[in-house]
Design goal:
By secondary structure, this protein is α/β, with parallel strands linked by helices. It folds into two domains: about 200 residues, Rossmann fold, CATH 3.40.50.720; about 90 residues, UDP-galactose 4-epimerase, domain 1, CATH 3.90.25.10. The chain is about 40% helix and about 15% strand. It is globular, with a radius of gyration of 19 Å. The chain starts with a strand and ends in a 5-residue tail after the last helix.
């Protein structure tokens, strides 16, 4: 199958592209940046915030995109860091423009489209387990959250108006290989691992903040299962129009995370604890039973194991010196 992946130079996009190639799919990436990790698949470098639709209401895409004739599109391109979008909210609007680009590409090619949404759409609900119907769209905690809510709304409208087959995934704190893009952004796990390894102090915003950390291989297995379900109806033909949580399904506090990194590195963290920052979700544990039922999703990597795998990858890749 030919799969077009937007945001293919990012962490999830790179891992997904390599997984799909390994099982025999053809992949074309779209991203505004070249891929720093892999040249194994072709990439169209373009800025997806530039509208593909002209005044004549017809969409035009780069020749390579049209010629590729995708069977499905996985839309992952975004500004993906919550706190950055609290400081620079205009980037949240760019997320919506990118989603429009991807939906127009799917409409033009008449193919199914999958969306990398986020647990941020639930807001900071302080409940223990989050099931898909619990999203209440008046609770956007941050411009990033608002951009994902808007993206989900656009997906729903394209399904209704143009009959597009859609599948929305809500990811949660994905970590693992290809996430050490330090100049661009650094997420909590790469940041803590690097600083604890080097003996540098860390500030932990929210000691008891409880999050559902997802190893990237579990995340991309779920996306691949979603592609199959949309295109060949296996393991379930009932996924079109669905919204599905993809996470590990267990909560860990940031205090737990620091302890696990200490254990895996053999180093003691110099940690200072501070209140959570504006816009942050402080508690999220996904209910992943829908993913299990509809996609046969079975996450394999608890944080205890994933942290060790991530640190091994960092060491082998030279990130820890
Ligand atoms: N990683 C997570 O924990 C997580 C959690 C929830 C949701 N998500 C969502 O999943 C998707 C993938 O996340 P990721 O971790 O791989 O993020 P990432 O930042 O590593 O990748 C996103 C990619 O989008 C590209 N991009 C940004 N603006 C663009 C533009 N104007 N035109 C073309 N490309 C552009 C970036 O260059 C980047 O390569 C994102 O939409 C993100 O919001 C991620």
């Amino acid at each position: 199958m030919n799969i077009l992946i937007t945001g293919a130079s990012g962490q999830i996009g790179t891992n997904l592209a390599l997984k799909l190639l390994a099982r025999g799919d053809q992949v074309l990436g779209v991203d505004k940046r070249l891929n720093a990790w892999s040249q194994a698949f072709p990439l169209v470098q373009t800025d997806m915030t530039l509208s593909p639709t002209g005044a004549d209401n017809r969409s035009r895409f780069p020749e390579q995109v049209t010629a590729f004739q995708p069977h499905a599109i996985v839309h992952l391109a975004a500004w993906a860091k919550v706190h950055q979008l609290v400081k620079e909210p205009a980037k949240a609007l760019e997320n919506v423009a990118m989603t429009f680009w991807a939906l127009e590409a799917a409409r033009a090619a008449k193919v199914p489209i999958l969306f990398g949404s986020s647990r941020e759409v639930y807001g900071d609900i302080l409940r223990h387990v989050t099931e898909e119907s619990m999203a209440d769209f008046v609770v956007a905690e941050s411009p990033y959250s608002a951009s994902k809510i808007a993206g989900e709304a656009f997906f729903s409208s394209y399904a209704k108006c143009y009959g597009l087959k859609t599948l929305v995934f809500r990811f949660s704190n994905v970590y693992g290989r290809y996430d050490n893009d330090l100049e661009r952004m650094e997420r909590v796990i790469p940041l803590f691992v690097r600083k604890i390894w080097k003996g540098e102090p860390i500030t932990v915003f929210g000691r008891n903040k409880m999050l559902d950390f997802t190893y990237v291989d579990d995340c991309v297995s779920g996306i691949a299962a979603g592609i199959d379900a949309l295109l060949i109806g296996l393991p379930s033909p009932r996924v079109a129009g669905q919204t599905i949580n993809l996470a590990y399904g267990q909560g860990q506090t940031l205090y737990d995370l620091v302890s696990l990194i200490e254990l895996a590195t053999g180093k003691q963290a110099q940690a200072t604890y501070a209140p959570s920052q504006t816009g942050e979700v402080t508690r999220y544990v996904a209910d992943i039973s829908k993913a299990r039922t509809l996609l046969g999703y079975q996450p394999q990597t608890p944080l205890t194991k994933g942290i060790q795998m991530y640190i091994t990858w960092c060491r082998e890749s030279g990130f820890l010196g």
